[in-house]
UniProtKB/TrEMBL annotation:
<keyword id="KW-0505">Motor protein</keyword>
<keyword id="KW-0112">Calmodulin-binding</keyword>
<protein>
    <submittedName>
        <fullName>MYO1B protein</fullName>
    </submittedName>
</protein>
<dbReference type="GO" id="GO:0005516">
    <property type="term" value="F:calmodulin binding"/>
</dbReference>
<feature type="domain" description="Myosin motor">
    <location>
        <begin position="1"/>
        <end position="307"/>
    </location>
</feature>
<keyword id="KW-0067">ATP-binding</keyword>
<dbReference type="GO" id="GO:0016459">
    <property type="term" value="C:myosin complex"/>
</dbReference>
<dbReference type="InterPro" id="IPR001609">
    <property type="entry name" value="Myosin_head_motor_dom-like"/>
</dbReference>
<dbReference type="GO" id="GO:0007015">
    <property type="term" value="P:actin filament organization"/>
</dbReference>
<keyword id="KW-0518">Myosin</keyword>
<keyword id="KW-0547">Nucleotide-binding</keyword>
<dbReference type="GO" id="GO:0000146">
    <property type="term" value="F:microfilament motor activity"/>
</dbReference>
<dbReference type="Pfam" id="PF00063">
    <property type="entry name" value="Myosin_head"/>
</dbReference>
<dbReference type="GO" id="GO:0005886">
    <property type="term" value="C:plasma membrane"/>
</dbReference>
<dbReference type="GO" id="GO:0005902">
    <property type="term" value="C:microvillus"/>
</dbReference>
<dbReference type="InterPro" id="IPR036961">
    <property type="entry name" value="Kinesin_motor_dom_sf"/>
</dbReference>
<dbReference type="GO" id="GO:0005903">
    <property type="term" value="C:brush border"/>
</dbReference>
Amino acid sequence: QDNSFEQFIINYCNEKLQQIFIELTLKEEQEEYIREGIEWTHIEYFNNAIICDLIENNQTGILAMLDEECLRPGTVTDDTFLEKLNQICATHQHFESRMSKCSRFLNDTSLPHSCFRIQHYAGKVMYQVEGFVDKNNDLLYRDLSQAMWKANHSLIKALFPEGNPAKINLKRPPTAGSQFKASVATLMKNLQTKNPNYIRCIKPNDKKAACIFNEALVCHQIRYLGLLENVRVRRAGYAFRQPYEPCLERYKMLCKQTWPHWRGPARAGVEVLFNELGIPEEEFSFGRSKIFIRNPRTLFKLEDLRKQRLEDLATLIAKIYRGWKCRTRFLLMKKCQIVIASWFRRYA
């Protein structure tokens, strides 16, 4: 119920993770259809970039203004920080405060004067401004880092590399918010170089008990996790896509014209293959560089046919090998019989 600086930082990280989820699943998928020339009707979804910008913008973001308050000379308190937020963010559609003199919130008794509220992608969260400045200013100063670096224990020494006298930086140590922002940026950069898979966990109830299903709670989680938009994009789009070359290489044994070698372009080979298999035209589309398959059952059918064809090929290889082995043995026995017969007739 009482959210302070720690929960604010956690929710900021959640916003960034949701943003990359949107980028990689909704935005990127729809842009791929356009790049590949697939006929597509754009599906609208909420992009939480505006919330991330509210928090991390270098000039007008909440973290930037918090750092500015921590560095400003004079009397600095949590109330002066809130006043600064009210000046800069008063008109932002995802920021709410009773002190912002905005008519929308003046009569909102659920919002205390010492709090501000952010409308996150998961819903509205109210933050107690008390402690924001002190917690953001809770720094590890150079003398402490240098003392720890001089420790005899190698692990302790390795945990404080900034204490190395050869790397002394006379600048003020970064604030807690700045350090966390930099860590999140590194995490996002790392995730964008990978091909992540997402597992969404849905809590069936708030009691952590078995056999209890709270429909309202589940529906709320499905909405704020963006699963509805994701399902709409998936259902309207294609479940599977693959470049023409590996697709032809995997399934070419299913068609006599493409097996064992196809001499033409890979796309033409895939067209011949799908026409030979009699796959309905509404089940697939040809992009500029990839084949798009709409329903998983079509892919499962291809895999089943491939599995059966591999079994048939294995049987054929085994049959030919056994025939070759038996014929080789027969020819050897025939040759031996001729030699034996010729020597027998010589002495008969």
